[in-house]
């Protein structure tokens, strides 16, 4: 009886030691960028831009539906929908998504979408506005405003002059309005006053 008990104890001990052996771990799945979270440097700088004509939008809620649907796709950096001009501009990484997938996603949201070929149209649609900026006291102030303007989607060029307390902003009116530019400046803590706005001249 004692011999049988010892044999069972040995078997249990062997099993317990066996449980301590390292178990193989499955390799982790690769992480793909989702929207702006595409943080890998190998895809940074390879972004592309596509502009779509979106028909059927009637209000800001429609624009919001399109924007949310597009941003759910992997590899989307930014999506801006202009309900007044029936357009959507999308910045994306071609390694993860293409124009056709984006177009189909917009249509799945319930709207008709067509890719716009932009050859030679960007210069014709460029507008420029001059803004008076009150409250700047040093180059750090002007740099803060300039960086904030350059970060806005639709802004092509922004220059802030501390000496004249003015900013000159070149932008795409199909994506952006001068009111949004003024709001962006105000959000940096300075007062923005529109001086003029109009089309840029070709050199």
UniProtKB/TrEMBL annotation:
Key word Metal-binding present: yes
Zinc found in the keyword field: no
SUPFAM superfamilies: HMA, heavy metal-associated domain
Domain of life from the UniProt record: Eukaryota
Protein name per its UniProtKB record: HMA domain-containing protein
Signal peptide boundaries: none
Stated family: Belongs to the cation transport ATPase (P-type) (TC 3.A.3) family. Type IB subfamily.
Positions of the UniProt region annotated as Disordered: 18-40
Keyword terms, alphabetized: Copper, Metal-binding
Domain spans labelled HMA: 48-114, 127-193
């Amino acid at each position: 009886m004692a011999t049988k008990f010892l044999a069972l104890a040995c078997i249990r001990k062997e099993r317990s030691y066996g449980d301590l052996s390292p178990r193989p771990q499955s390799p982790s799945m690769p992480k793909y960028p989702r929207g702006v979270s595409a943080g890998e440097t190998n895809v940074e700088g390879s972004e592309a831009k596509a502009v779509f004509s979106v028909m059927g939008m009637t209000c800001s809620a429609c624009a919001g539906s399109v924007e949310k649907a597009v941003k759910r796709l992997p590899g989307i950096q930014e999506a801006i929908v202009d309900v007044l001009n029936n357009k959507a501009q999308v910045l994306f990484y071609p390694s993860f998504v293409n124009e056709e997938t984006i177009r189909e996603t917009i249509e799945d949201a319930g709207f008709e979408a067509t890719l716009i070929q932009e050859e030679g149209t960007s210069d014709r649609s460029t507008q420029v506005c001059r803004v008076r900026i009150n409250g700047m006291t040093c180059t750090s102030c002007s740099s803060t405003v300039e960086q904030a303007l350059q970060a806005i989607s639709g802004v092509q060029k922004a220059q802030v002059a501390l000496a004249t307390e003015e900013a000159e902003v070149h932008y795409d009116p199909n994506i952006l309005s001068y009111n949004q530019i003024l709001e962006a400046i105000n959000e940096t803590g300075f007062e923005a006053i529109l001086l003029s706005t109009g089309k840029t001249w070709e050199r």
